[in-house]
Amino acid sequence: MSGARLSLLVAAGTVILSLGGGVPLGLLSGLRRGWIESLIMRIIDGLLAFPGLILAMAIAFVLGPSLPTVIVALGVVRLAPLARVVRSQALSLGHCDYVESARAMGANSARIALAHVLPNILSTILVQASLTAGAAIFAEASLSFLGAGVPPPTPTWGGMLHDAYPYLETNPWLTFVPGACIFLAVLSCNFIGEGIRDLLDPRERTRRGTRAA
To answer: What pLDDT is recorded for position 205?
Structure first.
C-alpha cells in the first residue's frame, strides 16, 4: 500500500507533464506550417529515436535519482508519442468544413485549436492519458528495479522487486505481491482507457443503442 502511493503520484505527475507539453506541441505542429512545424517534429522525432526506458534512465542519471527526477524523465519520454497522436488528429480535423469556415472568418490558429480542434479530440487525449498513467507506473517500477528511480528508503514496487531478487530461488513469494500490484495497476489503467473510449465514442454509443433496441 505504501508503494502504491508513490506509483500513483508518479503516474499523475507524468500525465500532467506529458499533457502540458504534448498537447500544445501537437496542436501547434498540426495547425501551423513552415519552420515551426519542422522544428517541433524534429524534436519529437529525436525523442522517439531513443528507447523510452533508456532515455528515462539517462535523464535520471544526469539529474540524480529522486521523485521529481523520475516524474520529469517519464514526462519527457511520454510527451513525444502524445504529441504525435494529437498532431495526427489536428491534421485530420484541420481540413473539416467547420475549421475551414472559422479560418475564412479570420480566426487565428489559437482560437481554432482551442474552440474547434481541442474539444473534438478530447476523448483521444483522455484515452492517451490513461495509457500514459499505466506506462508511467510500469516505467517507474523498472527504473526503481534498476536503481535509477526513487532511492531507498522510500517504498516502491520496483524497489521491492529489487530487494527480493536475491531470494528468488529460496523465497519467490517475496516478488509476487509487488509484481501483482504492478500488473493490476497497469491493467486497470488500460481498462479505464477502454472505458473512456467506449463512453465518448459516438459509434460505440450507437452500437450500444442498437443492441439495446
So the answer is: 53
